[in-house]
Amino acid sequence: MNTLNTQVAIIGAGPSGLLLGQLLAKQGIDNIIVERVSGEYVLGRIRAGILEQGFVDLVREAGVNERMDKEGHVHEGFDISYYGQVFNINIKELTEGKTVMCYGQTEITRDLMEAREAAALTTYYESSDTAIHDAKSDAPYVTFEHGGESYRLNCDVVVGCDGFHGVSRQTIPAEQRTEHERVYPFGWLGLLSDTPPVSDELIYCKTKRGFALASMRSETRSRYYLQVPLDHKVEEWTDERFWEELKKRLPEEMAARLVTGPSIEKSIAPLRSFVCEPMQWGNLFLVGDAAHIVPPTGAKGLNLAASDVATLYKLLCKAYGEGDMSVLQRYSEIALRRVWHGERFSWWMSNMLHDFDEQEVGGMQKATFDQFMTSELDFFLNHQAGKQVIATQYVGMPYENID
Ligand code: FAS
Ligand code: PHB
């Protein structure tokens, strides 16, 4: 058994784990990351694209912003189209100057990986049998297998950045945690293509045929999504079928100028709202998808992971700075306040913009639910105050100050 020692053991080298590791290292707080798959595999996951200002500020604080500032695109608004009517949500005007950054999660993860390697920080990729021990004690530790050898990683705290299917949430005894969940009766079929985006802003489309989203990664790379039934397989969707369906869901003038091309990635993601409470157990802390999941309709998943990182990072700096680890007990309460705001917004946007092919939705007939949701959307899009509510949530609620 190889024995290792660090201050903070991080499980998972996705955006949460890498961002936290980078921030802590800049403050001289030693950390080691244990990751299940290879770095290439992590980078192969095509996911989020919209970064809130809080996330952008964190990346700058981590000193990993050079490419983001060069290649990212600041967005001052987005469109919502419903039944062919297009409404612009000018987030910059409605939030007195706030914006969002369009820069792919893959790129942020790549930048963080390269920065970690350049700083010679330790990451054990392709590890297996990761397990967390004595989380309730002052001397927790993590065991794992790597390169055919067994390891024991002694630490002060363990941070579970290991996503929805990771080991850390499961380490909290079931009777000690409350899980809230809503699984949606549809998925998102995503397509990435090296074609120019159909618009320079995102377009969220509500149609009788289902939801669609037009997004982008750069001026030459587009990201599109279609709501599809849960029983659909990605193999059933040829590129041609995807483009034809997208044209039927985009507003007419945008469908007319859509540039199609071969997909470079195509996948179907299920949608769920999920929160685990509490987000900590002794000296084990859950961050990001390990603790919560949102439907991507509100562009909150990655951004909630970032606000968890911000909260835990500040508390860890305070704890080590003052030599008092008890401040860490505030983490879950602070993190969950912002998580629930993101969960509500993502659930609300999903209810309004998707077509629920269930006979009963929210305890009422589908037709009645549709009427309520269409009327809700109509009210919010036709009133300045309504647009302001959407814009305020889209740019992200402020991060809490840790005094
Ligand atoms: P991640 O899941 O990214 O990373 C967890 C890491 O832990 C992985 O690398 C995994 O290999 C590792 N791990 C797991 N178990 C382990 C173990 N036992 N031992 C060691 N390592 C382990 N969010 C948006 O904002 N917009 C979107 O459009 C969007 N689209 C998405 C599409 C899909 C298909 C999915 C699944 C998510 C999407 N999300 C989106 C949400 C997504 O971006 C997450 O919020 C983000 O990846 C969260 O980052 P992490 O918390 O780091 O978790
Ligand atoms: C994306 O670009 O992948 C994206 C953007 C906004 C969303 C979801 C996904 O709400």
Question: What keywords describe this structure?
Answer:
403 residues; alpha/beta; FAD/NAD(P)-binding domain; D-Amino Acid Oxidase, Chain A, domain 2; 2 domains; eight-stranded mixed β-sheet; six-stranded mixed β-sheet; 13 helices; globular; binds arabino-flavin-adenine dinucleotide; binds P-hydroxybenzoic acid
Summarize the structure.
This protein has 403 residues and is an alpha/beta fold.
Category from helices, strands and their pairing: alpha/beta
Distance between the termini: 41 Å
Shape: globular
What is the β-strand count?
Answer: 23
> Which assembly state applies to the chains in this document?
single chain
Can you say what the CATH homologous superfamily of the largest domain is?
A: FAD/NAD(P)-binding domain
Q: From the coordinates shown, what is the CATH architecture of the largest domain?
A: 3-Layer(bba) Sandwich
Keywords: FAD, Flavoprotein, Monooxygenase, Oxidoreductase
Protein name: 4-hydroxybenzoate 3-monooxygenase
GO molecular function, one term: 4-hydroxybenzoate 3-monooxygenase activity
EC number: 1.14.13.2
Q: Mind explaining what this structure looks like?
A:
The chain folds into 2 domains: 2-77 and 98-180 and 271-357, FAD/NAD(P)-binding domain, CATH 3.50.50.60; 184-267, D-Amino Acid Oxidase, subunit A, domain 2 (D-Amino Acid Oxidase, Chain A, domain 2, 2-Layer Sandwich), CATH 3.30.9. Helix content is 35%, strand content 28%. The chain is built from 13 helices and 23 strands. The chain has helices spanning 15-26, 39-43, 53-61, 66-71, 91-94, 105-118, 168-171, 239-249, 252-256, 301-322, 331-353, 366-381, 384-395; strands at 2-5, 8-11, 31-34, 50-51, 73-75, 78-82, 85-89, 100-102, 122-124, 128-133, 141-146, 149-154, 157-160, 178-193, 203-206, 212-216, 222-229, 263-277, 280-281, 284-286, 292-293, 360-361, 364-365. The strands form 5 sheets. Strands 7-6-15-16-17-14-18-21 form an 8-stranded mixed beta sheet. It has a 6-stranded mixed beta sheet with strand order 9-3-2-13-20-19, with helices on one face. Strands 1-12-11-10 form a 4-stranded mixed beta sheet, with no helix packed on it. Helix 1 (15-26) packs parallel to helix 10 and helix 10 packs antiparallel against helix 11. The two termini are 41 Å apart. The model has no long low-confidence stretch (mean pLDDT 96). The structure holds arabino-flavin-adenine dinucleotide and P-hydroxybenzoic acid.
